[in-house]
């Protein structure tokens, strides 16, 4: 199936060249779209040099850093307009191993609408993470699962593959977040929409170059939005129950 790997970048000059090279080596048939948010460190220019030598690599330049969600939405629009059948999210820092991409693609091609690369299902793992960060991720996913009633172990992860028609339908319903919880928003919309969502184990490797974009403000936004979504879901459920009782 015609596949596009979307790689958002901001100040990833140390990572973009080796990452794209690994994707092209591991899955030679897929195309790569680097979505650069005007990186001042020259990431976009490096991506342009890769694209000049490889017709299966394209670069989408954006003028401002508007968040991970906005970058992915731009990449999704680009890929959907060009008829890609599978669209993949992948971090630029190497934490999502391109050598594991075929696992996700095999499950989509077998019929799934959305496949999540999961750190927290049997067989999943993390490498070079401090205990504090693992506790935060596991706790955040537990809270997400309980607050939203999602049957997913890793709804916050960003290594995922969408079937194009399912993705288009999810996006048509609107997306409420542009930040870290963008991933949770897409996953919950997929589950609520009745799509076939599956998880496959991956090994997440902490970046060795560049700086993480995660900070306290991003985590707080995610906590607030997930709490609000959960409260709204429960309110809607109570209204439906009362409506049936009144009928």
Characterise this structure.
This protein is of the alpha/beta class and 247 residues long. The chain contains eight helices and nine strands. The chain has one domain: Spore Coat Polysaccharide Biosynthesis Protein SpsA, Chain A, CATH 3.90.550.10. Helices cover 46% and strands 17% of the residues. Helix 1 links the parallel strand 1 and strand 2. Helix 5 runs parallel beside helix 8. The radius of gyration is 18 Å and the shape is globular.
Short description:
The protein has a single domain, classed as Spore Coat Polysaccharide Biosynthesis Protein SpsA, Chain A. The chain contains eight helices and nine strands. The protein has helices at residues 16-26, 43-53, 68-81, 101-109, 131-148, 164-172, 182-192, 216-246, and strands spanning 3-9, 31-36, 57-61, 86-89, 114-118, 125-127, 160-163, 197-201, 203-205.
Q: Layout of SSEs?
A:
Blueprint (H helix, E strand, L loop, with lengths): L2 E7 L6 H11 L4 E6 L6 H11 L3 E5 L6 H14 L4 E4 L11 H9 L4 E5 L6 E3 L3 H18 L11 E4 H9 L9 H11 L4 E5 L1 E3 L10 H31 L1
Parallel strand pairs: 1-2, 1-4, 2-3, 5-8, 6-9
Antiparallel strand pairs: 4-7, 5-7
Helix pairs in contact: 5-8
CA gyration radius, whole angstroms: 18 Å
Whole-number tally of structural domains: 1
Spatial order of strands in the largest sheet: 3-2-1-4-7-5-8
Largest sheet: 7 strands, mixed
**Topology pattern, helix = H, strand = E:** EHEHEHEHEEHEHHEEH
- Overall 3D geometry? globular
CATH class: Alpha Beta
Low-confidence parts lasting 5 or more residues at pLDDT below 50? none
How helix-rich are the residues, as a percent range? Answer: 40-55%
Number of separate helices? 8
Q: What's the average pLDDT?
A: 90
CATH architecture: Alpha-Beta Complex
Structural class: alpha/beta
Briefly note the CATH topology name.
Answer: Spore Coat Polysaccharide Biosynthesis Protein SpsA, Chain A
